[in-house]
C-alpha cells in the first residue's frame, strides 16, 4: 500500500471547516490545508507556533500566481510576526491573517472573483 501526501490538483471552494478538518470538491481532509494555484494540499502546521517561513515553502515557490495570501490562524485572529510578514512583502504577496473561519469565507469570495488568492488554513475543532 502506498501512502501519499494529501493533494487535490486544482482550485476549489471550501465547503465546510471544523471538527479538525475541511471539506471541498466532494472530499474531506483532516488537518490543516494549504490552497495554492497548483492545488489543495494537506499542510503540516497544527498551531500558530508552527507558522514559520519553512511552512510556507509552497506559497513562496508559487509567487507568480499569488497576489493575496489569507492565513487562517485558528479559532481566533492572531497577527503575523513582523519578520514573517516581511518575507511575504519581499515576495510581492499581501499576507493577511484572520481566524480560520473568516479566511475560509474570504477565500471562497476571492476565488469566485477569479482573484490570485491562496490560503493557508489551520484546522479548528
TrEMBL record:
- One family from Pfam that matches here is DUF498
Signal peptide positions (record): none
Report the PANTHER family cross-referenced here: NADH DEHYDROGENASE [UBIQUINONE] 1 ALPHA SUBCOMPLEX ASSEMBLY FACTOR 3 (PTHR21192:SF2), NUCLEAR PROTEIN E3-3 (PTHR21192)
List the protein's name.
Answer: Mth938-like domain-containing protein
